[in-house]
Input
Amino acid sequence: MTNANNHICLMQKIADRSARVGIIGLGYVGLPLARAFSDRGFRVLGFDVDPLKIERLSRGESYIGHISPETIAAMTAAGFDTTADFSRLNEPDAILICVPTPLSESRDPDLTYVIKSTEAVAAAIRPGTLVVLESTTYPGTTREIVLPILERSGLKPGTDFFLAFSPEREDPGNPQFATPSIPKVVGALDRAALEAAEALYGAIVTLVVPVSSPEVAEACKILENTYRAVNIALVNELKILYEKMGIDVWEVIEAAKTKPFGFQAFHPGPGLGGHCIPIDPFYLTWAARKHGLSTRFIELAGEINTSMPRYVVGKIADALNDRGSPVKGCKILLLGMAYKKDVDDPRESPGYELMDLLQSKGAIVSYNDPHIPRLPVARRHPQIRGSSVPISANDLALYDCVVIVVDHSAYDWAFIVEHSRLVVDTRNAAGKISYGKDKIIKA
Output
């Protein structure tokens, strides 16, 4: 096949749904993406380094709350296959890389998973393949890191293979938006790659937004998450200030929300969680240092947001002290270990930090989370272990303090307040409870 025909053939395969889609990383981004392609008639081959994920999917099980076993069964019936054998990367016509991009201990980008995945692609790629990086990263990664590795295959970009970047935009737990209904931004190295990526994603989403380069698409994702991180830091800072002034920040936010223009509500909490907002802005901070610049807003927002668990622990200590109890030896229950409401994902959850801080002060800490029966090992808190404990009336009465970390819909706040001795509320979950106001402390 000639080089020109590589593009024509790929576009035809996408158009008639005969293109096979390979997805590297079957987590909270990759698996929903696989479902979207499978639902639209594409055969999907999923890759993951975790053999337990592959085993569970092969048994028809799901490890993500909002994807049911029935969905996995339907995907399998439609041709969905999974493997840990990366030599099979020569089978797909399009390869989407959806792997984690964590920070190192020094808050520098850790692209280990991206690099290893790209090396595996380079070892197996065949002519006519589209490669798209979806992992959130700093502007320049696709061109400066991924491209040179793929070129080791001896194939040429734009003719032999096609390279693009399209940032993931998953929002687990949000019933209003799923992969097909979220616009997809795409930036590519060249016109041929952009056309292929537009056609591929256009087959599964309602709107594709092409941009002029991979760098623009990479910067777009960083902007989206930095915007949220900075605004959450703002309300976290105002929470502390307004408390000193005797003002309830939650009431202020509800009032401000009535303005129909120029304001978007963000809410304070016990700290940031999830794989995006606590991490992604620091990719831009690192990139700025390479250019001799500083990102003062981002760094200040990071300082404020990472300080919130300590602020909450201080509020817990003060509340216990006011009742004549030191933190040391107290029994404390954390409600919610997910990083946000109604999800089963605890990545970067502030719950881990709260548990660590309280245990270091000598508290006996347990947790309950209806979505997380057992705590997975956290990257920054590998020593934190445990299983979700029950919260009957008798159980709640055993704790010196109950801390609302996540406002899951499954919780009955009136019941929890009624049967608890002391409630520290970081989410205003108990804000409308009329009974037991004297034992609710907002934090």
User: Anything to note?
Assistant: Residues 186 and 427 are 36 Å apart (CA to CA). DSSP finds 14 helices and 13 strands in the chain. Residues 247-442 form a domain with the Rossmann fold fold (CATH 3.40.50.720).
